[in-house]
Amino acid sequence: MIHEVDDVLRSLIRAEVLGGGQITVVFDAPTREWAAKVNAPMVNLYLYDIREDMRRRERGLHNEYDERGAVVARRRPPRYFKLSYLITAWTKRPEDEHRLLSSLLACLLEYEALPPERLAGSLAEIGAAVPMSIALPPPEDRSFADVWSALGGELKPSLDLVVSVPVTASPTYPAGPPVGDDGLHARFGDMPRPPEPPRGGLPVYGNRPGRPVREEPAAAAGRRGLALRISENRSAEGGYGGSGGSGGGTTGGAPADATKEDPTA
Predict the structure, then answer these.
(1) Could you tell me if residue 121 is left (phi over 0), alpha (psi between -120 and 50 degrees) or otherwise beta?
(2) Which of 73, 146, 220, 240 is 20 to 30 Å from 259 at the Cα level?
(3) Strands (E), 123-167
(4) Which of 20, 35, 133 is nearest to 88 (CA)?
(5) Secondary structure class of 234 (helix, strand, coil)
(6) What are phi and psi of 24, to 5 degrees?
(7) pTM, to two decimals
(8) How many domains are there within the chain?
């Protein structure tokens, strides 16, 4: 990812600033020892800082689709990282260095992102813009004087280039099967209510739900309404033995119908 940004910057500067001249583009640390060995004009792009661009962090997941347009997987959105380059020009005369820095600034100000036609590799596969900014003030926790002090070199006029590159190295989560036509259907309007299917048994007091209810035998067609039978028992002493309900037996003697007259009366 970083080397692909290097290739884009090298090709852009060679094509639009140097015009195919004898000036080379390098990515070396401009230390005191390195500066002592410079014997030809060159442009140095030193990568001195890498940190995440928190303003561009997104939440949620991005969908991945197949050729039919169905979601097959989900992944986290790309995270952007800021690559900070210290751009310096190296020639024999300071005037030539200033002229070269002016051409570099004019070229990079024309673009708010790396040219899409120059992207290659993973940068082209992502399909997202690669923003960049030039000559902005450094963050509060960093100064260019500190950078030069850490390098051990002499302070030199430079340009600060920041490229925010997306990185998609994140886990992929497979998606579940798509919802078909057998899912839930909701309709609104006046529709006839279908008859409810018979249930095996309703829960009643003292019974278990689901237990079949015992069906009573249907009454005869001729017997309707309330039916009552009264029987009378008379003993030899003239007393009454008792009476019972429907179908009840007696203990004193043969039952007599209550509707007949008593011959001894």
Answers:
(1) left
(2) 220
(3) 132-134, 159-167
(4) 35
(5) strand
(6) -100, 160
(7) 0.61
(8) 1
